[in-house]
Structures are given as C-alpha cells and as structure tokens.
Amino acid sequence: MGKIEWAMWANEQALAAGLILLTGGIVGVAGLFRGWEFAAYSIAAGVFVCLLEYPRGKKNKGTSVERTGQYCFTVCVKAFGPLTRNYYVRAFIHAAIAVPAGFMLATVLGCVCLGIASLIYLGAAIRGEQWEPILPRTETRKAVGESIKQPPQNPPPRPPAEMRRKRAEDLEGAAYDNPIKVTANEE
Amino acid sequence: MGNMIINHGLTSFILVVWMSINIILFVWFYFFYDLGDQFYYTRHLLGSALAWARAPAAVLNFNCLLILLPVCRNLLSLIRGSFMCCGRTMRKQLDKNISFHKLVAYMIGLMTAVHTIAHLLNVEWYNNSRRGMYDTLSTALSDLPDGYNTTYLNPIRNIDVNAQQNPTYFAMTSLAGITGVIITLCLILIITSSMEVIRRSYFEVFWYTHHLFVIFFICLVIHGAGRIVRSQKNLVQHNYTLCKDRTEDWGKVAECPYPQFAGSPPGTWMWVIGPMFLYLCERILRFIRYTQTVKYRKIVIRPSKVLELQLVKAGFKMEVGQYVFLNCPAISHLEWHPFTMTSAPEEDFFSVHIRSVGDWTQKLISMVEELPEGTQGPRMGVDGPFGTASEDVFDYEVSMLVGAGIGVTPFASILKSIWYKFKDSDPKLRTRKIYFYWLCRETHAFEWFADLLQVLEKEMEERGMGDFLTYKLFLTGWDQSHTDHVMVRFDEDTDVVTGLKQKTNYGRPNWEKEFEQVRKENPSSTVGTFLCGPAVLAKVLAKKCAKYSDVDPRKTRFYFNKENF
Questions:
Q1: Is the pLDDT of residue B486 over 70?
Q2: Mutating which of B120, B129, B130, B186 best tests the A interface, going by the most A Cβ atoms within 10 A?
Q3: Quick one: which of A3, A185, B116, B492 has the fewest CB in 10 Å?
Q4: Can you state the angle between helices B447-462 and B409-423, rounded to 10 degrees?
C-alpha cells in the first residue's frame, strides 16, 4: 500500500461528486423543489468542482494518462498556483462547497460524495502529495554520441535523376522498392 | 467479414439477448405501474414518476443477479469443462467475463441514477401532498393514517419537521431511504475506485473498495422491506371511478369505504439469493484451494529480476495458454494475482515467470532472494487453472505465432507443448512448421524466453529438425548503442542480443514481407495466425491474413485467431 497516490482516487471521486451535485441540482431546480435555491447553488458548485477536478494531475510514478481535451483546463488550474497545487486547500474547499448541498434531499448525495473526496484529499495531503500539471513534454534533443560526425553539408554525388529513375525493363536492378507496381508509360 | 462473424457473432448475440431482456423488463414494469388500477391513487399523488422509479428497479434486480456470475471464475471453469464438446466459440465467450461484468455494472449505474431521480421527485411530491398543497383528493389520500380502519398510502407520516428538511428526514428515517443512500454510496465508491487509472496503478485500492459490494447486497435485499410503494387492495369495494370525487364520504357511505393500501413483499431477494449463494461457494472454493498444499520443485531467479517458480500440486491439470491465481499469505492474505503459466501440460509440474511490477511481486522476489538454497519458498495458494486453452494452435499445418511484449509468455507454454508433441509424434499435433515472431521493445525481463528458444534450437538441430521452428525477434526499442554493438559483432554466428542463431531484427516487422515468405514456403497449406498482443496489431494481422489468403482452397489460406490469453 506504500506507493498508492490517494490523490488519484480523490480526483475520480470528486469528479463523480461534481456530476452528482450537478444532476441533483438540475432535478431540484427543474422540479421546483422546496429549497430549489440550494439546488441552483448545487448546479453552480457541481460545475465548479467538475472544472477544478477535470484536469488529472501527474502521477509521481508511471505514465500519466490525460483526460480528453484537458489541456486548457490544466492551464487554467495551474494558473492558481499553490491554491490548486496544495491538497490541504483542495480538501478544505471541497468540504466547504459540500456543506450547503446538504440542506436538500436532491443534493445530499452529492454533498456526501464530495465530503468523502475531501477526506481522501486530506489523506493525500498528509502524505505530502501535490498536484502537478501534465504538460506536453518539450522535445529535448538527446546529445548525440561523439562517434557521430557532423552531418554532411552537401548531398552525395549522384548521376542525374533521369538515370536514377527505376526503368520498367530493369525492375530487379533498381536500387529501391516501389510500394506500387511500376508500369511503363503507354505514350 | 466471415472472420468477424466467427469472432464476434456469439458475443453480439448474447449482448442482444441481454439488452432485450432489460428492455422487456423495463417496459413491462413501466406499464404495470403506469396502467394498473391498483395504482390509480398512488399515481394521483406521484404521476408517472412512480413507473419511472419501478421500471429501473426491475432492471436493477435482473442486473444485480447477473453481476455476481461472471466473477465466479471456478464456476465458469466448471461450465467451460462441461462445454468441451460444444465448440470453442462458446467457451471463448466465458473469457470475456470481465467485460460483461463491467457492462452490467454500467447498466446498474445508469438504472440507479434513473431510479434515484424518480424517487427524489416522488418524495418531494409526497411531501407536498402531505402538506395539503395539491387538490382535495391528494390531501385526503395523504391524510389516511395507519389506524383502526385505515391504512396509509403516503409514507410520509410525520410532518413536524421543517418543510424543506422533511424529504431528507424521511429518507434518513425510513428503511428504504437509509438503505438506498448506503447502496448508492457504496456503488459510487466502487465505481470511482474501478476506473482504469486506479485499477491499473493502485490495484489494492480497487480490490479492497470493491468489497463494499457485500454491504451493497445486504442493504439491497432489505431495501424493499419497508413496503412503502403501496397499491390499493380493496378495488372491488372501493371503486375509484365512483369515489375519487367524494372524499368527504369515505368511510361514511356503503359504496365508498376507506381505500385500503398495502405494499408488496420485497422481491429483490428472490432475484439475487441464487447468485449470492454461488458467489459464496466460489469464495469458499478459493479458500479450500488456498489450503491445498503446493510444493516448490524449483526456484530460479532469472536475469532482470524475473522469478521462475516451478510448483507441484496434487490433482492439478493444465492446458496450454491457461493462467493461475497465486496468493501468498506472508505478503497479503486477501490478494490473488493472475499469472500465465509457462510450462507445458506434458511436464509434471507447472511454472510461472513473475516479473517485478508492483508491490506484491516485488515483495515476493525479495523474500525468495533471501532464502537459502534448496529450501521451500513461502507458503503459496494456487487457484486455477483458468482461461480457454489455446488448442487450436495444434490444428494447423503451419502456424504463425506472434507474441508482443509480455504477450510472449503464453507462447512459452505453447512452444514447449508443441515440441513435446512433435518429439513424441503425438497424433493430435498437425503442425509441421512454426513461424514465431517475437516483438518487444527490449529483451529486458525476457531473457528467460530467449533461453527457452536456445534450448529448443539446440534440440532441434540435434534431431536434424532445424526447419521445424523459424523465429524472428524484432526489437522495437533500439537506439544508437545497440547499432554500435551490432556493427562491431555482425559477423559472429550467434546474435549479440539474444545469443540465438537467428539474428535480431530492429524496428517493427514488415508484415507484407513476412506473409509473402510464409506463402512462398508453404504454397498449399492452411496457416493459422495467433496473436497475443495489442489490439492495433490484431487489426493489422487480420487485414494481412485476409489479403494473402487465396480463394482457391488448394493454395495458401491464412486464418487469423484473435486469442485472448
């Protein structure tokens, strides 16, 4: 159990909680339930949580898999610096957001789920995890070994293109393979 | 096209049957609740949300029945064994058990959402009815208490609570409400911890959280015990068409006594008790298997931290390409991990090659490294063997076997078995020639397989059967240092990387060339192509098989077998 990054699970749980808050909120508002204002809040809270949690963080070990189209969200979330990087802050934010949703049955499930996510984030924060953005790797040229000489500046001397072209009469003797069959020009 | 039908026909058929049952259940119960006379008054309070809640409930019953079955692997093995006569396509369906389990889980998730939303509406409307916000009939119906000569319809009885909190209060104080919340929470936690990201990298989180299903099923069975979905029981005495507009006369006139309501007995247990029992048997069987003695015949630490365990267990019979689950109580009591077997059935032991990829495997390898020579390893439980045996491999005159990366492991078993059968002239073996293609990024962790090939190579040369096996290794992850190394040693007899006679190729194979070569060397044979590797490669090979197959049955024909080892 030593190498589990709890934040990864907290992220899935929080994203699910956001969707549940959103759904519960929509039901509450559409049905004009008693306390529908809490449902309206829940819609906003759900959207906020989804936006915050959509970009997956980078795993410490192993390859991190991005969610589809998460790059723009990564950039936005990254812009808040320590507020989004630190999981204590996230745990606190989620706990705070969850509270008003508990005042109505339609959204109470979202509240509990977000509360659980908040607890898992707290656990992750205690273990020192942080949110690292997944950014496209900048292509670094590997330092070429000493044995590779400078690439040549000029092409090697060759006979002109006319002579190099593969001739239909002499397919076997040609220096290269064609993916499509060579046929002589009709004209 | 024919290949597609053979490969996918039965799966599609099963899915169509499953989906049809779901749809039939949904529609049947929807109309049962939406049109039934006994629910007329209930519908007056709830509208069609009643039917929208009960229809998914029926689908949920069916799917909760199904979800436990695909994970009873010993039961599946039993079925597979008794289907030995009935064609491989049937048995191959049993290999897709986890995919089916996931599909059923998605359906459970979806139906839970519909069911919950419908009940949210129901509770809200029951609450409003109870507080007299709707018409006279609704108020009269909701007022009916559980009393001397009345039975309640509206389950919300206590309205001394804050009006907005009443729904939550009701949910938390009724059996259906509490169990519903617990079930849904368990389901959500199970689903979030089963996402691929979590499952692949942090298996323990997935595995232990998944055991919440025990709580799920217990609460599911008692979820309906409160009987709060109620129907009218005295339709004959109290005709609603006559009496619905005469609420003030109820109980006072002969033709309109009080309408009597009762809920139906909970039905979920009837659906799930069977699979729950089967699953219990499955776990007991796994426990029994775990207590059976497993002795170590040999323990070898291979290069690149690969551990080879040769084990002996009484009454253990395997086929090629199958896998076992191993459990080591010294590392973890509850974890069972699958490993493909690398030994042939002809041998009197079974072996697995274990790579260090996670917590469990690492601990096992370090434990074994510290053992003194010749002693038995840590106590091990073995469950299995599982998986559809790949006997088709022996049926083709010419076989093209393609193993990519870790997919090469079942081929160790297959190649060894083919070699044993060939040596003993086993009539079951029709193979005369094998082309083996081994693709990997680097041979790290597979040196043991190269050793196996070397041994086979030597034995074949000794018997003058050098042509039996042609193998090619493709290293797809080469770099400059590789090429330098190769350049220096290129005129040596054996390959620099593997020590094998056949030289290593770099980069991906040119399948056109390979198929051409096979076709040229076998102008009139049926060639079976077997792959254990990524799905992209499967598509490529399937296309090439179609392309290079001749319509003329006297000429070469390629059959692609998409194996799921």
A1: no
A2: B120
A3: A185
A4: 10
| Residue A106 touches chain B, beta carbons under 8 Å | yes
For residue B488, what are its two tokens? Answer: 């220096």
What pLDDT does residue B416 have?
Answer: 87
The DSSP symbol for B247 reads G
Burial string for A73-102 (b: 16+ CB within 10 Å, else e) reads: bbeebbeeeeebbbbebbbebbbebbeebb
Task: Compute CA distances B46 → B122, B162, B244, B522, whole Å.
Answer: 6, 22, 16, 73
Task: Considering only residues B496 and B526, tell me which one the structure prediction assigns the higher pLDDT.
Answer: B526
Which residue from B316, B370, B305, B367 is spatially nearest to B345, judged by alpha carbons? B316
Q: With a CB-CB cutoff of 8 Å, which residues 184-203 of chain B face chain A?
A: 184-185, 188-189, 191-193, 195-198, 201-202
Taking contacts as CB-CB distances below 8 angstroms, the residues of chain A near B192 are 9, 12-13, 16
Q: Residue B198: which of A8, A61, A106 has the nearest Cβ?
A: A8
Give residue B510's pLDDT. 87
Q: Which of the four pLDDT bands, split at 50, 70 and 90, describes residue A2?
A: low
Burial A44-59 (b: 16+ CB within 10 A, else e): ebbeebbebbbbbbbb
Q: How far apart are CA A39 and CA B471, in angstroms?
A: 65
The predicted structure's pLDDT at residue B565: 47
pTM of the shown model:
0.79
**Facing residues of B324 across strands?**
B339
